[in-house]
Structure formats: C-alpha cells, structure tokens
Amino acid sequence: MIEVTPQDTRTGSIAHIGAQPIALAAGALVVLLLSIGAITLWRAYTGTTPEPDRVVAARQLQARTAQTSEQLVEKTKGLEVTQQESIDQLQIVQDQLQTVRRQLAAQQAETRRLSEQVSGLTEAIDGLRQSFASVQGPDAPASTRNKPLRTRSRAAARHRHTGSHG
User: Fold this and answer.
1) Inter-residue contact 144 to 155 (CB < 8 Å)
2) I need a labelling partner for 107 at 20 to 30 A (CA). Which of 61, 89, 150, 165 fits?
C-alpha cells in the first residue's frame, strides 16, 4: 500500500484545483464573448439600438415636461388675474357698503331731527289748545271745545256773518 503523506495530498489537490479554475474562467470568457457577439449581430441585423430610443424617450419626456410647465404658468397667471379681479370687486363692494352705512346714518339722524321737530310741534299745538281753551272760558259749550280748530273758526265766522245781517 502506498502511504499518503500530508505533503503529497497538498500538492496533488493543488494541481487538481489549479487546473479546474483556469478551465472555468476560459469557459466563462468564451460564453461572454459569444454573448457580446450575439448582441452585436442582433442589433446590427434589426437596426435598432436602445440608446437612440432612450434619447428619443428622454426628449419626449422633456418636451412633455416643458409643455406641462407652460400650462402651469398659464394657469397660474389666469388664477392671479382672477384673484386680482376678485380683490377689486371686493373693494368695490366694501366701498358701496361704506356708502350705504353713511347714508343710513344720515337718514337716522334726519329721522331723529324730524321726530324732535314733530314732538316740538305737538307740544306747541297742545299749548295752543290749552291757551285757546282758557281764553274761551269755562262757560263755553263743551261741544265747541271738542271741535277741531278749523271747524270752530268756521262756526264763529258764520255766527258773526249771520249776526251782523240779521
């Protein structure tokens, strides 16, 4: 029997392992080269390469982005115009409201003034009635005192008119 020493095992396995990675690397290199060649032939045969397609897609995306940006700018300007119009209309309404408030205050002041004048005239009329009643005296008929002033003056005029002719 042959004895295997640790030293022999190491050299034999290194030789065995050393030959295998070289073959594996050579096989991987061949597969890689064949793949590159196949892709190159396929692109040459079909006439399409992904790089120009990507460039075209990027340009289309840029064009859409620019168009969308322009639309956003236009809409923003439109909103600004609308907002300014709304602000202007609100200012007009506020001015009109202030005018109406001033007119209402003036009308209320005029109403108070007229009310005070009516109260003053009512007091003056009451004073005249009392004065007229005291001038006629207590012996004057009650029916004459209760009649309106205009009716009493007509009756007095008729009485004077009939008394001087008769």
Assistant:
1) yes
2) 89
